[in-house]
Design a protein that fits this description.
It contains 9 helices and no strands. By secondary structure, it is mostly helical.
C-alpha cells in the first residue's frame, strides 16, 4: 500500500507515541495520495486517531483550533463511520471547553444544545446534559438549568456519578438562594 503515513500513524497511536502519530496523520490529511484513497472506515480511523492523539497531548488551544475546524468538515458527512467520529469529536471539543480554568459558558451552551439535537442516542448524553444544564445556570438561565439537572437526577438511564454531580450543583444553588 502507498499509505505508509496512515499506517505509521496508527502504529504510533497504538504505541501511545502521540506526537509522532500526529505528524504521520497530518501527512495524510494535508497531502492526500490520489493514487491510493482511504476507505471510509480507514478515514474514520485516521480522524479518530488524530483527534485522540491531539487530545492526549493536553495542548488545549491547538486541540480546540484543529478539532473545531475538523468538526465543521465532518459534521456534514453522510458516511456512517465518519458520523461516529463526528460524535466523539464534538464530545471531546465540548469537554475541552468545559475543562478550562474559565470556561466560555455561552459557547458550551451552544455546543451542548447542538450535540443534544444531533446525537440523541449518544453514550455521552448524560454528561452533555449535565454540561448543558450547568451552562444554562452559568448563563443566568437558572430555572431552565435546574429543570435539566432535575430531569437527569430522575432518569434511570443516567449513571450514578452524573446524578451526584447534578444533585451537588442543585444543592449549591439552593444554598446560594437561601443566603440571598
Amino acid at each position: 500500500s502507498l499509505n505508509y503515513p496512515y499506517y505509521r500513524g496508527l502504529i504510533n497511536f497504538h504505541q501511545k507515541n502521540y506526537p509522532e502519530a500526529i505528524i504521520e496523520f497530518e501527512k495524510v490529511l494535508v497531502k492526500q495520495n490520489t493514487s491510493n484513497q482511504l476507505t471510509p472506515r480507514q478515514t474514520a480511523d485516521l480522524l479518530m486517531g488524530y483527534v485522540e492523539a491531539l487530545y492526549q497531548l493536553k495542548d488545549q488551544n491547538r486541540f480546540k483550533t484543529v478539532v473545531r475546524a475538523l468538526s465543521q468538515d465532518i459534521n456534514s458527512s453522510k458516511s456512517a463511520p465518519i458520523l461516529n467520529v463526528s460524535e466523539r469529536v464534538n464530545y471531546l471539543l465540548i469537554e475541552a471547553f468545559a475543562g478550562e480554568a474559565k470556561p466560555e459558558w455561552k459557547e458550551i451552551e451552544q455546543m451542548t444544545k447542538g450535540f443534544r439535537e444531533k446525537f440523541q442516542k449518544s453514550p455521552y448524553t448524560a454528561r452533555i446534559g449535565y454540561l448543558y444544564g450547568l451552562s444554562l445556570i452559568k448563563n443566568s438561565r437558572v430555572a431552565e438549568g435546574k429543570e435539566i439537572l432535575n430531569l437527569l437526577t430522575s432518569d434511570e438511564k443516567v449513571p450514578l456519578h452524573i446524578k451526584e454531580m447534578c444533585r451537588s450543583e442543585l444543592a449549591t444553588l439552593e444554598l446560594v438562594e437561601k443566603k440571598l
